[in-house]
Amino acid sequence: MTTAVPTAAPPALGTLESALYADDLDAALAFWRDVMGLEPFQTAPGRHVFFRVAPMQVLLVFNPAATEQPPRPDARLPVPPHGARGPGHFCLAVPAAEMDHWRDHLTARGIVIEADFHWPNGARSIYVRDPAGNSIELADPAIWG
After folding, report:
1. What are the start-end ranges of the E strands in 47-144?
2. d(Cα 113, Cα 134) in Å, to the nearest integer?
3. Averaged over 66-89, what is the pLDDT?
4. CA-based R_g, the chain, Å
5. Confidence of residue 13 (pLDDT cuts 50, 70, 90)
6. Structural domains in the chain?
7. CA dist 67 to 12, 79, 81, Å?
8. In this structure, are residues 85 and 47 in contact, taking their beta carbons and an 8 Å threshold?
9. What is the pTM of this model?
10. Contact at 8 Å (CB) between 16 and 56?
């Protein structure tokens, strides 16, 4: 008996979760909740804080020192180790008409605007840093066509 090899990958629904890493989860919580307006829905002190971005999209912020460790042999949820060092990148889709509002909102909260420009197709991006040094982009979804 032979097993047929599929010719194409099964469909994906989209991006469900994205991860950033931060040594100081309290600072990450304050930034993502109080500045960016995302609601945390799960926390594990010293390990992670998770935020809902949209109905089927979440932002996972992990302490890399905790997630680089392999799971215990008896772990109920044996998630493989993962982590990153150095700045990551995360982009939030923002309506084009709200870009100035976002810039004013961030500036009023003492967040330094690292870059603010229009791409060749006219769509705009604003870049800031979160407390962990990750590059956070707010972009008009039209940057991708």
Report:
1. 48-54, 57-62, 89-93, 115-118, 124-129, 135-139
2. 13
3. 91
4. 18
5. confident
6. 15-69 (3.10.180.10), 87-145 (3.10.180.10)
7. 26, 9, 6
8. no
9. 0.89
10. yes
